[in-house]
Design brief:
Elements: H1 11-18, E1 24-27, H2 36-44, E2 50-54, H3 59-66, E3 70-75, H4 89-96, E4 100-103, H5 106-118, E5 122-125, H6 133-136, E6 147-150, E7 157-162, E8 168-176, E9 182-183, H7 191-196, E10 200-208, H8 211-216, E11 221-223, E12 230-233, H9 251-261, H10 264-274, H11 281-292, H12 295-299, H13 333-342
Parallel strand pairs: 1-2, 1-8, 2-3, 3-4, 8-10, 10-12
Antiparallel strand pairs: 5-7, 6-7, 8-9, 9-11
Helix pairs in contact: 1-2, 2-3, 9-10
């Protein structure tokens, strides 16, 4: 069901209200469709001491680390644009001792979020990791990175990871309604679990649609309104990554970023222009077009390729008819209770 009140707000207001210094912040998207504008706004507002959860530390994690926002990182992969000798912002921060990193496999990372989503305190994972450096080398989580327990049924050792319940999830989706029902399609990764495991959820979307659009395609709603705290309409909000049904990956902008990310000075110059120098995503796109023209953006817009509609129709939507009578027995609730009372079957 839709929430009663609109949760639409600007990206600036949403980040200001829900993302705070020292928070555990999970980037909900996994490689594709990343929440670029939400990440950039975290940087613009100068958040510090964050613990970032990211299944794939691509340009988004680089920007956050390069801006000095991140103290700790939990991930399965990080971009190394240049390798160990100069590399990425993450590599430079690790070498400088300003960033702690805890490394998991994709399966283990997802297991932590799935456990958090379902309210479990831990999740069993494949025990083969015990023989690897993933198990042996630990950072800020220490003994709580993994725990080995005895299976109560077989007595065998089981490897477990702790549940993750980040303070805030920032995530980009294709569309949402004003109440917060967020719809996403395509490569899912950990998107749903990252959002639903978190205490707060800030959603950006390519477009805000009417609630009846959401109702007509319920299978696409991965985050229900009652869990969402803010909805931000941000066209091109994931550039340079792709959003299925809207635009492809922007190889040109990605290449520009990677070229600049190889050095600290290069990344700073890129961020001064594209993050700090653009107050919001609209300004970012305007600057893009002014500098490079619109041909590239026009060229990556997706061509229509619609799925077949599904029939969600039914004879009726409730056990109760328009007169308030239960369809099988033909009584109102009051009449049914009176009948039970007369027969001595009503227990209060």
């Amino acid at each position: 069901m839709a929430a009663e009140n609109s949760k639409v707000m600007s990206v600036r207001d949403a980040i200001s209200k829900f993302v705070y210094d020292g928070a555990e912040l999970v980037i909900g998207n996994y490689t594709v469709g990343s929440c670029a504008e939400l990440v950039y706004e975290v940087v613009r507002q100068g958040r510090k001491g964050l613990t970032i959860y990211s299944q794939s530390g691509i340009f988004d994690v680089e920007v956050l680390v390069g801006a000095g926002c991140v103290a700790r990182l939990v991930s399965t992969y990080v971009l190394r644009a240049g390798g160990k000798k100069g590399g990425s912002a993450v590599e430079r921060a690790m070498n400088a001792g300003t960033l702690e990193v805890e490394d998991y496999t994709n399966f283990q990372y997802n297991a932590r979020l799935v456990a958090g989503m379902h309210g479990f305190s831990y999740m069993q994972v494949l025990e083969g990791a015990i023989a690897t450096d993933l198990f042996r080398k630990r950072s800020f989580l220490g003994e709580n990175k993994y725990r080995i327990i005895k299976c109560p049924y077989t007595g065998k050792d089981q490897l477990t990871v702790p549940a993750a319940n980040p303070d805030v999830c920032i995530v980009h989706v294709q569309r949402a309604d004003k109440f917060g029902n967020a719809q996403y399609w395509g490569a899912l990764g950990s998107v749903a679990a990252a959002a639903l495991a978190s205490k707060r959820i800030v959603v950006s979307c390519e477009e805000i649609v009417e609630h009846d659009v959401i109702q007509s395609s319920p299978h696409l709603t991965i985050i229900p309104a009652y869990r969402v705290d803010a909805v931000c309409e941000v066209p091109w909000g994931a550039n340079p990554t792709e959003v299925l049904g809207y635009y492809n990956i922007d190889q040109f902008m990605y290449g520009l970023f990677l070229m600049m990310d190889g050095t600290a000075d290069g990344l700073k110059a890129w961020m001064d222009e594209w993050v700090y120098g653009c107050e919001n995503r609209a300004a970012y796109i305007d600057h893009y077009v002014q500098k490079f023209g619109s041909k590239n953006l026009d060229g990556i817009r997706c061509k229509p390729y619609y799925s077949a509609p599904a029939n969600y129709g039914s004879a009726f939507t409730s056990r109760w008819d328009k007169d308030g009578r239960e369809r099988a027995i033909g009584m109102t609730l009051a009449e049914f209770e009176q009948t039970l009372k007369e027969r001595g079957k009503l227990y209060e």
